[in-house]
Specification:
Layout lengths: L9 E3 L26 H7 L1 E9 L9 H18 L4 E3 L3 H8 L4 E8 L8 H10 L1 E5 L23 H13 L2 E3 L5 H10 L5 E2 L16 H10 L2 E4 L14 H15 L4 E3 L19 H10 L4 H17 L9
Parallel strand pairs: 1-2, 2-4, 3-4, 4-5, 5-6, 7-8, 8-9
Helix pairs in contact: 4-5, 6-7
Amino acid sequence: MKPVGGSLFIADGHCDTVHLFAEKDYHFGCRNTKGHLDLCRLREAGVKLQFFALFIEPEYKPYRSLERALQLVGLFWGEINRHREEMMLIKTAKDLENCLQGPKIAALMALEGGEPLEGSTEIVEVFYRLGLRSVGLTWNQRNGLADGVGVGRAAGGLTEAGKNLVRTFNRLGIIVDAAHLAPRSFYDLLETAERPVLVSHANAKALCAHPRNLDDEQLLALRAQGGVVGMTFYPGFIAENRTANLEALLDHFCHVADVAGVEILALGSDFDGIDAVLPELPDVASLPVLAEGLKRRGFSEAEVQAILGGNILRLVRGNLLQEEIL
């Protein structure tokens, strides 16, 4: 699928731009010199679907995480309302299809770290009503739902509360994000989830042995479950003992395709959540450079379109309900 007036359909599975909405020298509706992403640069790149993460900073955990999440929801809704002629929050499959047929950018609200949910189905349902449609169970740490990669060798899997909320997410059509999960939690999630799982921002551990990256066994398990991995642009997840640049990132795309197939590849930039960028990909407006790089590496036009947006669009369609149910 191609956007109205553009040459590519691009979907990005992860950015942390919402925290910038409170900054006085940042204006989402304008082209900024601060940050990696804004409405003008999204349009310039041809992004049609953008996941916006509500990242709960460590200083708010565990006791103020719900308060912080609601603050971020308020900031996010403020920008959606200010730019309603150009952007639309998608909450249902019908919303998504309507948005894809018009000029607006589709925005999907995601939660990075499940602490605000406190293991409560009722709190999940409140966030559902507020528009939440994707949840990462944890951010590196251990919480009441799962263990993250930061726990290390002692990491366990999903708790019973975590498994129960995964089933709730599936019932409500909320995408479950496996980014940051420890390996046992990752496999527990794949076994528990009845809808395709997203890994919103990670790369190939075979090329960069960062604990946040996925090994080949995980990539194959994700493919078997019907999931998708958004390749991230953070230099620390791309290269260890060599220069992190576009070519090194493209190596990750090629490796994942060789191991598990093009159908699990997507984008998960982590823009505005990273403190360093690749020289060739300084912000979202540079995404067409990535598209050209994929073509140069031998991916066909159809494969490039699947990677840039088609695969994640399939996953979103496989999760969102046709109509809201609460």
